[in-house]
Amino acid sequence: MTVTPKNEAGDSRLTLLDGSRLIVEASARAGADVYVGYPITPANLVYAYSSARLPAVLPAPDEISALQWMSGLSAAGHLPMTATSFPGFALMIESLNMACMMELPMLVVLVQRLGPATGTATAGAQGDLWLLHGIISGGYPLPVFCIASLEDCWRLPPLALQTAIDLRTPVVLLTSKEMVMTLSSFDLARLDEVNSVKREYYQGESPYASYAPGANKVPAFLPVGDGRNQVRLNASTHDMQGILRHTTSESLANTRRLQEKVEAGTPVLYELDEDRDARTLLVTYDVTSGAGRAAVASLRRDGIPVSSLVTRTLLPIPQVYYEILGRYPRLVFAEENLQGQYARLLFGHSLPDHVTVIGEVGKMIRPEQIVEIVKSA
Amino acid sequence: MSAFLLTPDFPYCKGCGHHHVARTTVLALEKLMLNPLDVVLVTDIGCHGIVDGCFTTHTVHGLHGRSVALGAGIAMGISEGKKVIVFLGDGGATIGLQHLLEAARLNVDLTVVVHNNMVYGMTGGQPSGLTPGGFRTPITPQGNALVPHDLCRLARDAGATFVSRVIGNEDFTDVLQQGLETEGFALLEVLELCTSYGVKLNPGMRLRKLAEDAGLELGVWRGQSRQSFQLTHTREHPDLLDSDPIFVSYSSTLEKSLAVVLAGSAGEGVQSAAELFAQAAMASGLQVVKKGSYPVTVQIGFSTADVILSPEEIICHAIDQPDVVVATSADGLQHNLGRIREMERGIVWIDASLEPPATGAEVRRIDFRLRAGDRNAAIYALLVFLSETGVFPVQALLEQILRSPLAKHLKPELLAEFG
């Protein structure tokens, strides 16, 4: 096939870019107003672009400080973001618990790389899902969205930021090395407009109670330093005012609300491509979704019916996923880890016979591997 | 009752020095005639931290040892005219020492009050990093064997604007007021004795004597006056997508995906050459993916770029086996030897100085380095690759080179080889 010139003018705006650039530009347009950074490969490009694009950038001395500064900034009414990878994320975990308990909106972009420990900084992986699932002591969920394409690098950050505000919670945007560091040809004309996030502060009468459940069990927000109302924030078990309490009925109801608001309010995003004759459903997320799409196209060219589910809302697990999964006698999960983390998260550690996992460590899963497994049924 | 308090009674043990610190804080705030809603009290984990429920200021109760960083974040982001105060203990100051030093270094507008009662009072009276040598605690009944950090000295060295160490059972209202009036980082270390652990295990201990024996100087120190930390919003922040688009002005004969590996040495322009190559392919109507791999040291060792070219959208960029490898140095060849050996087809171009590897691919040797020099061997090799294969016009790459900073470093006669 000969490719001929096609965009002498037209509307297309071809460029060569990486996902980090889209993540930062979309975040900036959506209203992220301060980036708190600590360098780590493969999240460095997000830091570099943010330093050029966001209104303010703070170089933190470590990742614990980064999350604490973000919490303070969020408490003061800012919308902070950062990006990191496992070694840095591990240091952030206690502070993320604090931000969850204080109900502070912020965005953490977690770029997965090969572990364990420092592993290989410049090799991709999908190894952090289990970590995210259990990150809050007590099992309370944080919304976790996952990027499955370059377009997602543009679409998901604004949605993640809006979710952080709407649910008053930290939100994790999960991605991986190949998604944020790989340069790809891309037509910018494919991108939709990004609108600034909508944010409202408490407008009611005094006194304000920092944790009185509002719409959808989310308390209305006021920044500390407000001139009309006292604002109390608390990382310990607390009542609706934000005062430390032992296990009173009010304080425990407040703690339970953390789970209820996230489970009820996290947007459910997925891509379902169904073939009515298919008996196999391929499930992918993150960078492996590309291999999944290529495999599905290849299988269909060969006349083999197969369906595909690409999940973008990973946590909390949407109930609709089980309804979709339940329609298929055979499920194939492809993910770049040894354990089949997503499959086991959904079905438990002893996988049922109708679930097959394709895993890899240290290299991307290829479409041919998926094709072979699907054909082997 | 003070406008700063909901209750006159603090939830501390009888005789605890924390009562006096809380009362002194209220007095200092009253003397400054601040509105309670202009004050944010950030508390750490520790006995001192349960006081926030008594205050009518804004209150933020954080994690153990992190209160200074949390307070710093608030102070960085809050509007002018607000006063952020951090309460923490000697245990919190120990675990969060880095936060304290960083806030001092940045001169964040923050007043930190360290309640140094020499022990972790909430957990059984263990010694902290600020516990003086010889001080007896439940786990060091013979006396603490270590010397303490001199927190005030550390804060001063880190650039704090105001530092003071005071005896907790004396009147330090004026000192705290001075700290609160400071624009920038202020630290007040208040020496106390925990009634549950300190007093019982160190009977007759006097704080002045304790400080003297430990070499913990009392007093007030003022650092060089300097601007407190400001969160700047004034920088230019250009749209990251505002770049010149690539126009398709050439065409390609490529009929299916082609994976090209450019392998050379770090510091020899491998990644930028591959990027120009990718842009030239786009200008020839192709879809492109480019990935880089190099050691973290960046300027030494191998540098490899994988470039996938395709006439159709590339929805997966996992490479099983490359179609083409262009190796311009021993580092690059060595790093890719495994996959070159596994190649059953395709072409491997190597610099003429290198030993041909065992491979199922055709091997071609060319004097890349000799003809173009080490620094330009990578881009030269790609020009050779295009001129020999015609995957897309070599003119497309020449055009990208001439638009780039690389043009200044290439000899005109080298480019002239390709038209």
Low-confidence runs of chain A (pLDDT<50, min 5 residues)? Answer: 1-9
Number of strands of chain B: 15
> What's the tally of helices of chain B?
15
Helical fraction of chain A: 25-40%
Report what the structure shows.
The complex is a heterodimer of chains A (377) and B (419). Chain A contains twelve helices and 15 strands. By secondary structure, chain A is α/β, with parallel strands linked by helices. Chain A has a seven-stranded mixed beta sheet with strand order 3-2-4-5-7-6-13, with helices on both faces. Chain B has 419 residues and is α/β, with parallel strands linked by helices. Chain B is built from 15 helices and 15 strands. The longest helix of chain B is centred in the N-terminal third of the chain and has 15 residues, at 17-31. In chain B, helix 1 (17-31) crosses helix 6 (173-181), helix 2 (67-77) packs parallel to helix 4 and helix 9 crosses helix 14. The chains are: A alpha/beta (377), B alpha/beta (419). At the A-B interface, strand 1, helix 1, helix 2, helix 3 and helix 4 of A face strand 2, helix 2, helix 4, helix 9 and strand 11 of B.
In short:
The complex is a heterodimer of chains A (377) and B (419). Chain A is of the alpha/beta class. Chain A has helices at residues 19-30, 44-53, 63-75, 86-102, 129-133, 150-167, 177-181, 249-265, 288-301, 319-325, 341-347, 367-375; strands at 14-17, 34-37, 56-59, 80-84, 106-112, 144-146, 170-176, 183-187, 232-234, 270-273, 280-284, 307-311, 313-315, 330-335, 355-359.
Annotate the secondary structure layout.
The complex is a heterodimer of chains A (377) and B (419).
Chain A (H helix, E strand, L loop, with lengths): L13 E4 L1 H12 L3 E4 L6 H10 L2 E4 L3 H13 L4 E5 L1 H17 L3 E7 L16 H5 L10 E3 L3 H18 L2 E7 H5 L1 E5 L44 E3 L14 H17 L4 E4 L6 E5 L3 H14 L5 E5 L1 E3 L3 H7 L4 E6 L5 H7 L7 E5 L7 H9 L2
Parallel strand pairs in A: 2-3, 2-4, 4-5, 5-7, 6-7, 11-12, 11-14, 14-15
Antiparallel strand pairs in A: 1-8, 6-13, 10-12
Helix pairs in contact in A: 1-2, 1-6, 3-4, 9-12
Chain B lengths: L16 H15 L7 E5 L14 E4 L5 H11 L5 E7 H6 L1 H10 L3 E7 L2 E2 L5 E2 L23 H8 L3 E6 L5 H9 L3 E7 L6 H4 L5 H8 L4 E4 L35 E8 L4 H14 L3 E7 L8 E9 L13 E4 L2 H6 L1 H6 L4 E5 L10 E5 L1 H5 L4 H13 L4 H10 L8 H5 L3
Parallel strand pairs in B: 1-2, 1-3, 3-4, 4-8, 7-8, 10-13, 13-14, 14-15
Antiparallel strand pairs in B: 5-6, 7-9, 10-12, 11-12
